[in-house]
Every structure is written in structure tokens, then in C-alpha cells.
Amino acid sequence: MLKNNAEDTIVAISTPVGEGGIGIVRMSGPRSLKIADGIFLSKDGSKPSKFRTYTTHYGHIVAENRIIDEVILTVMKTPKSYTKEDVVEINCHGGIQAVKKVLDLALKRGARLAEPGEFTRRAFLNGRLDLAQAEAVADVIRAKTEASLKVAMNQLEGELSRSVDAVRQDAIDIASHIEAGIDFPEEGLELGEKKALVKKTEDVVSRLKKLVDSYEEGIVFREGVLAIICGKPNVGKSSLMNLLLKRDRVIVSPLPGTTRDAVEEIINLRGIPIRIVDTAGISETKGAVEKEAVLKSKRYLEMADIVLLMLDASAKIDKRDLDIIKLVKGKKKIVLINKIDLARNRKTGKDEVKALFEKEKVMEVSVEKKRNIKELEDMIADTVFEGRFSQAESAIVSNARHREALDKAYRCMLSVKRELDEELSPELTAIDLREAIFELGLVMGKSVSEDILDRIFERFCIGK
Ligand SMILES: Nc1nc2c(ncn2[C@@H]2O[C@H](COP(=O)(O)OP(=O)(O)OP(=O)(O)O)[C@@H](O)[C@H]2O)c(=O)[nH]1
Ligand SMILES: [Mg+2]
């Protein structure tokens, strides 16, 4: 059978494989009701193809007169369903065997196993969702915090598509004026008309800029930021990791060199998903394992969005600290002076530290006594967005594909603006406008290639 053939009826287990309360087998396509007729036995003998849409029925899945499972079956008929096709969902008992067996029966009766994201792909191809909305489905599933979910849900509800489409309509409007000028050059543009076009172009440029810029915020919500805790051995990195995670995830001990491997977890700070990594203390070591651990710490530091550089208040700043400071030069960072509870042994304070840095944020903490931890969390959240954090209700771009298209459109519209200002040939302007309109269309999935669709939907899970 051909991949992505709309004539196929597709089927998949839509719930995670494993033991659970229920497991759902989902089917979509022209034969799904017929297939359900053949495997479902309701109490009164009525058939799924005769059920009214959006009704739920109790019954059994049977094969060769044997009961396979006791189920609830829901029918959603075309066009009012997730895929706009006939959809049947079968809620089975949530064991691996029951759902597998039901899946097998559907396959035997002519359904084909769905590709990852194929249900959503059909929803897109059948016009229920545009592409940006379809992509948001995967983001909703993967959302790491409430704020990530909000951004994804806004996109799914069409917030981004509406903004982009409005810009696109304005670009089309500008293009039609410019093209009319090419077709009827003797009529030319009146001064008032030209002024209005320039104004509209400026407006489009500034809306596009806003959208492109929103990506910095959007990507943080979607992917999270990578924060690396680093420092020489024994300063309290793992203790901080556990405290931020609110559970004992990594081993803490008074022995230097306790942490050997980098450990990554996700925390939610003021709604921002932060991928936080505890690393092995960096120092010159002889052992092979330690060497490897230090190398790994260094590799993580290269990728870091934010570095939490930890120093020890009870020890003097030494060569190891200075080496690490050198290593993280140029990185966005917060310098932590830990163990301030050891007041009698105070060797390193804000003054010593500030002399070593230019304008880094410095925070004195005691992880053990939980001092200044809330302040530290606020500081991390502020540092991520550097005051740009809006969590605005307006459309936020969180997808690299969208950003790229919007950025190209933005550049084209900047050219349009310049060409209008300098009264260059309208043919040139028309070309730039066409390109901008094309790029904006890509966001919603207008004239995207199969390859792009393949790439987008392969990220989805099977059954979605
Ligand atoms: N007094 C005091 N001790 C602390 C504080 N934070 C951590 N410690 C202690 O410092 C020791 C080392 O802590 P860890 O969290 O294992 O340090 P680390 O930086 O992860 O060490 P390595 O994994 O070996 O690089 C432990 O005995 C902790 O209990 C603090 O704020 N005050
Ligand atoms: Mg450690």
C-alpha cells in the first residue's frame, strides 16, 4: 500500500504501550466503520456504521466467536472528526495484549498501520487544521510547563496563523496595487496612494519584526533553556541540583569528585522549562574516569545557555576556580558563592568575586541552609529573558521553520520598503512581494512540499 494514500484506512494504538487503565485503538479512513462492524459486537447487535456520530457504545470485540476484550467504542463520522474522515476509537482494557489484539484484527480486515503523525497529517490535508496548528499538536503533547502549554495551545487555536495570515493579506493587498501599476503604467500611483502603500509596508515590516523577535521567547518555552551548574569539586553543585529539583536525585558527599557523570533534569521556574545539568567538578585529575568526567563537563559548558558558576565562600579562590572562570568567559552566567553559612571561615565574598568579573550577576547562597534560594530562582528566570519576558497574549513564534519563513518574508518586505522609498522599478518590488507572500504562506502550509511534511510529521508519535 502507498504511504499517505487517503484511500487507506489507518489504525494505531494511540495510548502509550504498557499497562494502564485503558488503551485506545484509533482508526480513520473510508473503511473504518465497516471494519468496526466486523469486529464489534454491541449488546443489541447494532452495527457501528449505523451508530449516530459522536455516540459511545458498550460491547465486545470478537474474533471467530471468541471474546477478545470488553470495550467502549466511539464513532465520529466525516466530516466532523479529528481527521475529517470516519473515525472509530475503541477504548480497551489497558494491557498490552488487549490493544494489540484489537489492532491486529483491524489490520487483518484491511486497515493499515498509521505512520507517526498520520492522523494529524490527514487533519491538515483535509483542511481541518493549517500546518502551524498541526505542528502545535506535537508541541502540546511535549509541553514541559504550563507556560509551554499555553504557547502551544495558542498556536493550536490559530493565534499565530491569524497573525501571519493578516500580514500575508496586507502583503497581497500591497502587491495588487504594485502590479496594477505595472499593468497600467500610464495611470501611475497618486501621491496619496503611494503614501498609503509605504505606510502599509512599514506596518507589515514592523509586525513581521515583532513575530521574528518573539522566537527568542518562544523557543525557550518550547525547548527550555540549558543551565549548567559548574565549579571545582566539592563546592555544592549536586546539593544545588537536588534543592532545585526538590528531591535527592544525585549523590552529595563531603568527598571531592563525587559526581562523575553529568546528570540532566527539567525544572519549572516561574513557568520556564529549564534543563538543568549537574556536572562533575572541574580540576586537573589523573584518573581516566575523572578525566572523561571533566571533559564531559566542558562539553556541556560549551552548549550552555546559562552557566551557574559555583564558588566556595569558605575557601580562597584558587587556580581551579580561575581556570573555570576562563572557561566560561563570554557565557551568560550567574556566579554563586555557596556555603555562606560557614561564616567563621569566610574567605570568598562578593568583593573578591566582583573584581574577577565585569558585570556578572553574583549571588551569595547557602544551599544547605536554603538561604537566598528563592532569590536565586528569580535571578535565573530574569537572566533567561533579560527583562524581555512578556508572556504576551499575542502570537509567539516557537518553531524554527516558522521563524525562518517569517525572517525571509521580513527581509523581502524591507526590500519592498526601500524600493518604494527610492522609487525603483515596480517589477522588482513585485518580485519581492511575491516571495514574501510565498514565505508567509509556508507557515500555514500553503504550497509546502511533501518532504517538508514528512519531516514535520515524523516527529510525531504514532497514533496522533
Ligand atoms: N556548610 C555547607 N555545606 C554545604 C553547602 N552546600 C553543600 N555543602 C556540603 O558540601 C559537600 C559537597 O557537596 P556536593 O553537593 O556533593 O558538592 P559537588 O560540588 O557536587 O561536588 P563534586 O561532585 O565532588 O564536584 C557536601 O558535604 C555538602 O553537604 C552549604 O551551603 N553549606
Ligand atoms: Mg557533585
Described by strand count, sense and barrel closure, the largest sheet is:
7 strands, mixed
Q: Could you name the CATH class of the largest domain?
A: Alpha Beta
CATH architecture verdict of the largest domain? 3-Layer(aba) Sandwich
Q: What is the end-to-end distance?
A: 20 Å
Number of helices: 15
Rg (CA only): 29 Å
Proportion of β residues? 15-25%
Bound molecules: guanosine-5'-triphosphate, magnesium ion
- Relevant CATH superfamily of the largest domain: P-loop containing nucleotide triphosphate hydrolases
- Report mean pLDDT, rounded to a whole number: 93
- CATH topology type of the largest domain: Rossmann fold
Order of helical and strand elements: EEHEEEEHEHHHHHEHEEHEHEHEHHHH
**Tally of separate domains:** 3
Sequence stretches where pLDDT stays below 50 over 5 or more residues? none
Instruction: State the share of residues found in helices, binned by percent.
Output: 40-55%
Record the strand order, biggest sheet. 3-4-5-6-2-1-7
Please state the overall shape, judged from the principal axes of the Cα atoms: flat
The structural class is alpha/beta
Task: Tell me the number of strands.
Answer: 13
Describe this protein with a few key phrases.
3 domains; six-stranded mixed beta sheet; Gyrase A, domain 2; alpha/beta; binds magnesium ion; 464 residues; Rossmann fold; 17% strand
